[in-house]
Amino acid sequence: MRWFVRGDIDGFFGLALDNLVQLLVLTSLCLGVLGFPPALVFGRVLPGAAVSLLIGNLFYAWQAQQLARREQRTDVCALPYGINTVSLFAYVFLVMLPAKLAAQAAGDPDPARTAWHAGLVACFGAGVIELLGSLVAERIRKSTPRAALLSTLAGIAMTFIALGFLLRTYAHPIIGLGTLAIILLVYFGRVRFRGGLPGGLVAVVLGSVFAWLTGLAPSGTPGSASLHLPVPVLGELLAALHGSYWLTYFSVILPMGLFNVIGSLQNIESAQAAGDSYSTRSSLAMNGIGCIGAALFGSCFPTTLYIGHPGWKAMGARAGYSILNGVCMSLICFTGTLSLIAWAVPIDAGMAIVLWIGIVIAAQAFQAVPRSHAPAVVMGLLPGLAGWSAFMAKAGLHAAGAGTPGGTPFSVDLIQTFGHSEIWIDGALRLEQGFILSAMILSAMTVAVIERQFLRAALWCVAAAALSVLGLLHSYRWTPADTVLLLAPAWPWAIAYLVMAGCFALARWVTVPVEYTQEQERH
Q1: In a 3-state reduction of DSSP, which class is residue 3?
Q2: Are 444 and 319 in the same domain?
């Protein structure tokens, strides 16, 4: 398999766009919310993130080549890799911002440095958890039905990726629908532009032209380039590790680390369903090394395997797109040209590519499982839909002024307010906490029931009950501006799962099998 093929260009635009969005978001949050000085953001955080992106992308490109050589194939696609979106927001708002506010309240003369130290500990902790998880993850993957792993990704792809970018598409229709037509033609219509122009490149260029013609770009003023090479911050990291951050923010670091491990497992299973069987242990271990490398060079933001492998593979991407992404993102971080790119090429120019990838991931969940397991896939979609609904509801409240400085703080009274409109917001908030685990368990339980493996279904329910007791499922607390995970027992849900387990365990003795003819199944 060649290191670079034409499809790698399309794959690069999709993956680079996603990574670019994360870099823009973390820069904005670090400067605006956390109050980091620009020297810290551009001199330490971004170069540290670049180190992890470069190491990981080069490894996964090499891993793809090794698989291609071993299996004598030329169609192997590297695992996509980048900054972890969920951890990015969790670490900013649940670790670094509270650390900054606590430091300010204690009269700390440099609260931004305190917040940075807390973020370094969280990022380092994520890497350690991923490394330890790599030792047992393959066993978990083999014992979990494919429908459970893929439907969880499909729920995220349909909501946070596909629906989110579909709304943006219709908010800016000329750019969104114009570029969507290009992507649909090339990847669903299976045609190629004359002259061999990659469809992704055509879509991004056309989207940028539309953005400039309609006034969406440029935005703000272009930034200036300046060289910032990565520098180890071992002394700062050791000082942070000797502090109390581990204990203070363990309730965030542990569940986020576990969710990252489960999410990576699902992405590896998705790649296998698309035809590329990668080693679970080495893939997860690289995740952990990337996070630790980020912390060692000053980044507070862990990296992870991305969902979307089937989409990039369908584009024709192989190993080269991963190399291009790692090198390009590193150069952007090292040279300080991030703001210049954001000024010239808006996110909207490439959103059709991301929307298409979300569609492909959701479709794979149905295509790569036995037909009889389709109900289990639907079951696995629902917690992701609920989590997105909770996210949208809270975003709407923020837009109306609730949970903002000077506005009405979030409180339990919101449950009653939503209830007047027959909206069971508490259920959405309960499902939002740990929805990745909930989706996997509900789908696996449904597969077991479909296969009449009732004892296995009961065991999945017991697992859900145990996670509820630990507070990793359905347990949350109110803050003035959000609802966040609370590591405390969610007893009603734990008991309810045990009731389900009892029903399944007794099914063998209190039920009899019923076989339907094809005519009965149609009706």
Answers
A1: coil
A2: no
Res 86: pLDDT: 65
Residue 314 has a pLDDT of 86
Q: How far apart are CA 21 and CA 26, in angstroms?
A: 9
Q: Is 103 contained in some domain?
A: yes
Number of separate domains in the chain: 2
State the pLDDT at residue 221.
Answer: 67
**In the predicted model, is pLDDT for residue 200 greater than 80?**
no
- The one-character DSSP state at 307 is S
Averaged over 346-353, what is the pLDDT? 78
Residue range of the domain that includes 191: 7-216+254-367
Across the chain, how many H-helices and E-strands are there?
Answer: 26, 4
- Paired tokens of 150: 């893929």
How far is it, in rounded angstroms, from Cα 20 to Cα 30? Answer: 15
Q: What radius of gyration do the chain's Cα atoms show?
A: 23
Same domain, 355 and 384: no
Same domain for 362 and 497, yes or no, is no
CA 423 to chain centre: 27
pLDDT at 250 over 80: no
Helix, strand and coil content of the chain, in percent to the nearest 5, comes to 70, 5, 25
Residue the block writes with tokens 């979030």: 410
